Structure formats: structure tokens, C-alpha cells
């Protein structure tokens, strides 16, 4: 029998993505995605700057928000610049190593962001349900450890998912029906038992996403019970407004991640995969800072102060 591990002949992949689109469509998409990428980078960059420099935003919520924006910047920079290049050049190939690197960074940053969003839900729970003990429970040391845990587990989980994605050799088709190296699509191109790798990634997604969702749901059940039992109507509105921003971001990210990694591949196809891929690679990182900024008076005030200082220094 042929040893599959020694029969790998694929040294590069071809990202089909928008290859079948007309030149005018690709030009329009380039302008659109470049504008969205620039907006996401500017908004997230501004949030990182003000949450790390403005002393009025020194609470744990803004500490987590700054790191969430850092993760968003890392995530979109891993994917979007390459996609923009492929929209204007005819060569859509990426090396085997580049594909592996991109996939690992997507795994690492994506898992870390999901974990951080769960910790942000817990932070809101402590702030609303245990306000007198909030400073002690969510101390700076605890916040740093929580963020470090999100990053560390993202790195470790990324190694496991990377191994499962590339454990088999690639000696068949090298055309990826997407605009980046998405794991389920790449695994389907491998030789050998690709179903085992897909099942392991599916199990990992269930374990990670559902356990984090359990923490988020538990936190919000506690918040809802506390608010309904003691808050005034004005206080309820303010609390729900704060939580709505976080829940909106969670729904964006978790829905697209669950569709991509927790659905059978038989239900997928290029027309179904690409919209969800765009949702969590571009739309979610762009919407996160906008949602948090426009629904938070402190954020809007800090942004106005930061933009005012920059205009004065010109």
C-alpha cells in the first residue's frame, strides 16, 4: 500500500474565492472591502488607544474591550489584506506554509475572542449583581489573568486544531472554494481519513462554544433576575442597554462560528460558506467597535476627547 504521508504532492493552494466574478464585480468588491477594512482598523485602533490611555476608562469592562479590539485587528489583518490582493491580481495561489500559518492564526485569535466575550459576560454579571464586591472580585490582577487565559487557551487550542487540519497529506485537488484557508474546506481536500479530523474539530467546537455559551447564558440569567427584582425602570433601561451591546457582538460571532464548524459538511457549499465567512471575518470585527461606541456615553465622550486632542496637535 502507498504510504499517504509520503505521497503528498500539494505544495500550494489556490483560493478560488471571487475568481469567477467579473472584473467590474471584483473592482467593486475591492473598494467595498477596503473601505470596511479601513473602517474596522480605524475604529478598533481608536478603541485600543482610548481604553489604554484615557484614565476615565479604567474599569475592567474597558480593559476587556481594548483587548477585544486588539483581537479583532489581529483577526481581520490575518485574512483581509490577502483577499484584497487576490481581488486585483490574477495569481490566487498561497503556499502550503502560508495556508497553515493563516489557519493557525484564525484558530488562535478566534478561540481567544470567544473566550474573552464569555469573560466579559461574567464581568457584567459581577458588576450588576455584586456591585459592592466588584472591585475586589474583578481586580486588575484578575482581569490580567482572565485575558491571559483567553490568549493562552487560544494558542494551545490552535495547535490542536492545526494538527487535526493537516494530519493527512494533500495529494488531490488544491482549489479552496473560499477567499481564505478555512479549515473544513481544506480538510476535505486531504487524502486519507478526513472525516476523523472533521469530527474532532466538530467535537472541539461543541466543547468550546457550548461551554462558553453556558457561562454567558448563566451570567445573563443572573443579571436578568437581579435587575427585575430590585432595579427601577430607569436603571433597567441603562443595564439592558449596556448588556445589549455585548449580546449583539456575541450573536454575530457565535452564530457564524457555529455554522462554519458545527454543521455537517454535506450542508455546506461555496454559496453558503462565503456569506458566513464574510460575517465573522469582516462584519463582526467592524460592527463590534461601532456597537460598543454608539451605545455607550463614556466611549463616545472618550472618542470625542481623543479626536479633539489629535485635531489640536495638527
From TrEMBL:
GO MF annotations in UniProt: G protein-coupled receptor activity; olfactory receptor activity
Coiled-coil zones: none
Keyword Cell membrane found: yes
PROSITE patterns, A to Z: G_PROTEIN_RECEP_F1_1, G_PROTEIN_RECEP_F1_2
Compartment(s) of residence: Cell membrane
Highest taxon of the lineage: Eukaryota
Pfam families recorded: 7tm_4 (PF13853)
G-protein coupled receptors family 1 profile domain location: 43-292
InterPro entries in the record: GPCR_Rhodpsn (IPR000276), GPCR_Rhodpsn_7TM (IPR017452), Olfact_rcpt (IPR000725)
Cellular component annotations (GO), alphabetically ordered: plasma membrane
UniProt keyword terms in alphabetical order: Cell membrane, G-protein coupled receptor, Membrane, Olfaction, Receptor, Sensory transduction, Transducer, Transmembrane, Transmembrane helix
Membrane topology: Multi-pass membrane protein
Residues in the signal sequence: none
Ranges annotated as spanning the membrane: 27-50, 62-84, 104-122, 142-160, 205-228, 240-262, 277-295
Gene3D superfamilies in the cross-refs: Rhodopsin 7-helix transmembrane proteins (1.20.1070.10)
Chief subcellular location: membrane
Similarity comment text for this entry: Belongs to the G-protein coupled receptor 1 family.
Annotated protein name in UniProt: Olfactory receptor
Gene name, Swiss-Prot/TrEMBL: LOC100960916
Amino acid at each position: 500500500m502507498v504510504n499517504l504521508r509520503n505521497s503528498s504532492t500539494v505544495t500550494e493552494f489556490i483560493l478560488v474565492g471571487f475568481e469567477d466574478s467579473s472584473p467590474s464585480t471584483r473592482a467593486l468588491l475591492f473598494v467595498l472591502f477596503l473601505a470596511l477594512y479601513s473602517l474596522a482598523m480605524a475604529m478598533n485602533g481608536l478603541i485600543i488607544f482610548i481604553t489604554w490611555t484615557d484614565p476615565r476608562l479604567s474599569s475592567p469592562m474597558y480593559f476587556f474591550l481594548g483587548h477585544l479590539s486588539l483581537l479583532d485587528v489581529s483577526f481581520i489583518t490575518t485574512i483581509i489584506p490577502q483577499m484584497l490582493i487576490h481581488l486585483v491580481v490574477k495569481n490566487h495561489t498561497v503556499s502550503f506554509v502560508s495556508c497553515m500559518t493563516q489557519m493557525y492564526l484564525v484558530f488562535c485569535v478566534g478561540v481567544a475572542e470567544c473566550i474573552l466575550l464569555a469573560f466579559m459576560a461574567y464581568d457584567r454579571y459581577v458588576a450588576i449583581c455584586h456591585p459592592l464586591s466588584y472591585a475586589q472580585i474583578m481586580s486588575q490582577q484578575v482581569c490580567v489573568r482572565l485575558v491571559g487565559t483567553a490568549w493562552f487557551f487560544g494558542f494551545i487550542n490552535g495547535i490542536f486544531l492545526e494538527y487535526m487540519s493537516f494530519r493527512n497529506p494533500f495529494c488531490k485537488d488544491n482549489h479552496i472554494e473560499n477567499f481564505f484557508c478555512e479549515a473544513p474546506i481544506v480538510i476535505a481536500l486531504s487524502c486519507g481519513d478526513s472525516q476523523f479530523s472533521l469530527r474532532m474539530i466538530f467535537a472541539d467546537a461543541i466543547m468550546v462554544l457550548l461551554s462558553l455559551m453556558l457561562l454567558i447564558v448563566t451570567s445573563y440569567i443572573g443579571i436578568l433576575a437581579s435587575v427585575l427584582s430590585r432595579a427601577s425602570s430607569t436603571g433597567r433601561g441603562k443595564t439592558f442597554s449596556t448588556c445589549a451591546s455585548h449580546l449583539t457582538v456575541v450573536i454575530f460571532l457565535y452564530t457564524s462560528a457555529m455554522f462554519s464548524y458545527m454543521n455537517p459538511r454535506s450542508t455546506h457549499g461555496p454559496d453558503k460558506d462565503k456569506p458566513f465567512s464574510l460575517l465573522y471575518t469582516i462584519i463582526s470585527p467592524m460592527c463590534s467597535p461601532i456597537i460598543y461606541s454608539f451605545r455607550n456615553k463614556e466611549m463616545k465622550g472618550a472618542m470625542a476627547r481623543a479626536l479633539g486632542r489629535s485635531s489640536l496637535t495638527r
